[in-house]
Known about the structure:
This protein is of the alpha+beta class. 19% of the residues lie in helices and 35% in strands. The chain is built from eight helices and 16 strands. A hairpin with a 6-residue loop joins strand 5 (92-93) and strand 6 (100-119). The longest helix is centred in the N-terminal third of the chain and has 25 residues, at 27-51. Residues 358-379 have low confidence and may be disordered.
Amino acid sequence: MEQVAWKGLFLSFFDYKTEKYVIAKNKKVGILYRVVQLSILAYLVGWVFVVKKGYQDTDTFLQSSVITKLKGVAFTNTTELGERLWDVVDYVIPPQGENVFFVMTNLIVTPNQRQDMCPESANIPDALCHTDRDCLAGEAVVAGNGVKTGRCSKARESTRGTCEILAWCPVEKRYKPKKALLASAENFTVYIKNSIRFPKFNFSKTNVLATNDESYLKSCRYSMEHRYCPIFILGNIVKWAGSDFQEMALEGGVIGIQIEWNCDLDKAPSECNPHYSFSRLDTKFAESISSGYNFRFAKYYQDAEGVEYRTLIKAYGIRFDVMVNGKGAFFCDLVLLYLIKKSNFYRGKKYEEVKSSSRKSLPTPSLNGNQSPDQLGGL
């Protein structure tokens, strides 16, 4: 029985099969069939080719560089610093940034700090004490400014005090100005130069207007009418992000500057334009203890006796993050090589024929991405 089954299976390999078509003379079935065909065709032509431009080759590997420079001066008159003029070296950290830069808008200054022994701040819970036993010598104050000496420092007739510490004394002041000291930073300007390149198509562009007029960048300001002026007013950036500059300047924050390049390289290079959007990235709720943006730094000096001292600055301000993305799309090789009248010409340019001989063949120019879209304008 098994031999018969195996024999039948073997002989079936030599069978010739052909398809059978049945034509249904039914208008409903025929109409439904054509509707399905037309729907698929409409999807391919309308959505894939027209809307999504599926006939194009895309490059999402955008190469980008960002250079930023700020300008503006501010004047303050405080008890700690007296009269002082602030320029970009003072309020911009680092002074010349790239895709991230920080502008100081408010500060708390603790001048003339020296390494010494002094009471810890009463705002530090771990520093509170009633007796010396509450201050273990050599133990660092949690979230504090120094190391405990073993003594509890109390005011006269007070039952509670703070631990004495070895630190930079006096300790940092805890008050915060009710108004931003560098409020005039709202009128400062920032120059944001962005250069991009789509390596697949060897296409490059920048967001700066190509002009020989040296006065243009000194007088222009970015707007919808001047999209290729890369000079932005800080107050406008914060406003476009949906925030108030003076309110934000008090405790600081983070602003995102998004530059998007979505370029249809089948069109003229002038049609490839940068699009800007602005958003606030930090937590902006006043009741949140983590709202705003700040950090500390110090400037060190030596007195006449060579003893080191410093000025501690707690800086509040706005950090700007410049983010660049985009994609370039261009006529794909399929259309060039097969669907136009000059397809034989372009195939000859793209593919190089190499024969096995002792003679060296010169390389043929390629069309696989090493030419800009402008060089293909005669399609």
